[in-house]
């Protein structure tokens, strides 16, 4: 009996600790990308002087459930901003090619993100954790692609 009560107490303590965390960061992170140091920051990010692009790291975090987040941190890890994003569109300019390892994922692939009406485009050049912000407009005749064709 004491052993069962001890296990229940431990389970309750663990669950209480997890409940105090942001559930997106504990349970549902799907992908985590770093914006390349050579890339500009998203249009909605404005650094206060004396900070410059070389002083910060930007990350795009996609969740299985919930909205994606763009986080900007100083090199020492201090969070400067964390914005909740909307995904407007996803598409790829590469044709389907059966010789690829996974023909459902084509590169380069793009994702248009929106923060309070300010839109910007992320480019996934290859299957890796580094992305770039690009000035690329989606042609109007290009339809949205299903999630299977979107970046991982």
Task: Describe the overall structure.
The protein has 152 residues and is an alpha+beta fold. It has two helices and eight strands.
Work out the strand percent.
25-35%
Overall mean confidence score, pLDDT: 79
Biggest sheet overview: 8 strands, mixed
Strand order of the largest sheet: 4-3-2-1-8-7-6-5
| Straight-line distance between termini | 47 Å
The SSE order reads: HHEEEEEEEE
Q: Runs with pLDDT <50, length 5+?
A: 97-103, 146-152
Oligomeric state, counting identical vs distinct chains: single chain
Counting helices, strands and paired strands, the structural category is: alpha+beta
Number of strands: 8
**How helical, in percent, are the residues?**
10-25%
Number of helices: 2
Shape: extended
Q: What is the C-alpha radius of gyration, as a whole number of Å?
A: 19 Å
Short précis:
The chain has 152 residues and is an alpha+beta fold. Helix content is 15%, strand content 35%. The protein is built from two helices and eight strands.
How would you summarize the topology of this molecule?
Layout: H1 2-19, H2 23-27, E1 29-35, E2 56-63, E3 69-74, E4 79-84, E5 86-92, E6 109-115, E7 118-124, E8 130-134
Parallel strand pairs: 1-8
Antiparallel strand pairs: 1-2, 2-3, 3-4, 5-6, 6-7, 7-8
List keywords for this structure.
alpha+beta; 8 strands; single chain
